[in-house]
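call fold target=Diguanylate cyclase
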Amino acid sequence: MNSVTAAVLPPADSLVRRLTRLNLRLLSMTMLLTFLLLATATWYVARERQLHSAELSARLLANSVSPMLVFADRAAAQIELEAFSRRSDLLLVQVRMPDGAVFAQWQSGPGTSQLQLAAPAALAQTGVQSAASWSALEVWAPIRLKDELVGVLLLRESLASLHLSLLLLSGVAITLMALMILVAWRGLVLVQRKALRPLVELSDLAEQIAQQRDYSQRATIYRRDEVGRLGERFNEMLKRIEIWQADLRLQLAQEHEAGQKFERLAHKDSLTGLPNRLFFQGELQRHLALCVEHGELMALMFIDLDNFKKVNDQYGHDVGDEVLCEVARRMAAVVRSRDVLCRLGGDEFALILPQLPDETVAEQLALRLIAAVRATMTIGGAVMPIGATVGLAFAPLDAGEATALLNASDHAMYAAKRAGKNTFRRPQDGVA
């Protein structure tokens, strides 16, 4: 029994690479969306903080220039504004009279854009007003002296520093994201290659078997997960194909050697006298057609002898042949007259049960057949440890086609083997 253990290089469009690409795309989109949301939230929060700072500065400056406005000291007001202009990002600071006339101002450059706010006269009731756009913010603050409105202060600041800081922060974040995606890519390749290794090996084994027609190979089972169960079913399929292939070769050899004699006995097993596989195949097709035509219930038993190989190895093939003949006689004695008992080859038998009133009849017959085979069998003074394991499938309940019904009974037989032998199982009993 061979197994695939050598590392195989992944093909150009392997499952590992496709999953890695899909995971990286999902990760990149998630990180990009998170970055955009965080950057937007950061910009809004930073702008609100700068706007709040500008409002506090405007209030303090308004308190400072109120006496100068009352005493019409323009020179002092101008000095105060120039001292205040050391504040970063400041575009314009302006002191106006209540009637809107400019009393004093400082401006960083010509052509600064203006934001639309309420008329200065309304500030007596509303207090400080502010607004912000993408590129600048503006604050209007009332100038009061003893609760009397004596003027209005206008403060305008640029958001260029905020944008620069956000740009630098975004550059750092994007660089980190790229590094994280690179690390994730390497990690995903390693993790997925390890996780998908059993599936890749199973695919390579199927390709190798398809090319070499060597059904003796088996898949390596690493874990009892979905892929592990798939590997077990694949191995069971290979085993059955190997058995059927061996039976076919044996049958072809027997046909060549038997010649004309085989033509006369084409439908009979020469050892047990039972109908053989060829006869069984024709009868199964015929009874299935009648089952469908008349709406009747029929069953198929796949019977495999237990410990037959042990008998052959310990007592020889002659004793093994006597055991097969005795088993055939015992089973033929318990079946109904219209049932069709066949020997498929080796220690495998099949029983067609047509025109069943219900499923219970077939199940009871399976128990009687197992008991008949298991009864003490003495050949040449030695007790033969022979038993029978039965797979039972019904048409049309489990399958309506010959191959499918045979496969269903075969799988049921393997389920009975796993259950401890010398028993029978239905197809649904073998579901993992």
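return ok
Residues 3 and 325 are 38 Å apart (CA to CA). The first helix runs from residue 15 to 70.
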